[in-house]
Amino acid sequence: MRIVNADLHCHSIVSDGTLTPEALAARAHGNGVELWSLTDHDEVGGQHRAAAAARALGLPYLCGVEISVTFAGMTVHIVGLGIDPDDAQLVAGLAHTRGGRERRAREMAEQLAAVGIRGAYDGALKYVGNPELISRTHFARYLVETGVCHDTHEVFRRFLTEGKPGYVEHRWAALGDAVRWITDAGGVAVIAHPARYAWANATQEYALFAEFKAHGGRAVEVVTGSHSSAEIVRYADMAREFDLAASRGSDFHSPDESHTDLGALPYLDGRLTPVWELLAHRVLH
Ligand code: AMP
Ligand code: MN
Ligand code: MN
Ligand code: MN
Question: What are the pocket residues of ligand 1 if the criterion is a CB atom closer than 6 Å to any ligand atom?
Fold first, then answer.
């Protein structure tokens, strides 16, 4: 049960990835993934396409989403796995969470213009597959295209992050709401890539885990594309400490940008409870 090449986190053109749901399904299958989930940001518009493509390949599939949350003034991502993508409360909650992205994008472009980078709003839009989901990643692609930066990672080091030009504060969903939307839609809520949050102190991180659990959250990503081996060990310990199941996902966005390909990840530690043990009844075959 533990030695499963599950990849339960990635993005398509429906959010900030560059591949279609069908191309991702084929790539996951080709890479040996045995259980797959597409988890677009704040959006389930790709779920039926992903599920159909996976079914045609004989690839077991869990419907998924990655919800942007504001917790203690920080942006945290909560993945939902095994959700019903047509659940009315979830669909409405995600639509509300997506609102405000366009205004934020216009402010980001104004800040970039102030440091001499012109045309960023229209430039970012060229990369947007879903008009409701303009994201920082689309701006990053434009800054690479125009030669301002060498790659998208450099963009996030120099721009678009707190304290840098192009960073606009934004209020996303509340933690309790996101966990409730996922859980009420039949899914399991998962703390995404926990090592990627720049907490001011360890207490804040404990508060996230404790409140997440209190709201009904049941899992944490232990193995993800952006975790070092030390971080994998640290969050395996956190999973045990908080009695959470463990998830595994590449967070793949693009063949040109992502360091970790679909399915190309270390296996979960056999002493952890894999999140798919909680979701056997939600897997689509
Ligand atoms: P947004 O939802 O518009 O705030 O955009 C967040 C997205 O930007 C994330 O999902 C990542 O795809 C991307 N991103 C954020 N920080 C970085 C980073 N340091 N390096 C590369 N991509 C990043
Ligand atoms: Mn992303
Ligand atoms: Mn994320
Ligand atoms: Mn992601």
Answer: 16, 41, 68, 135-137, 152-153, 156, 253
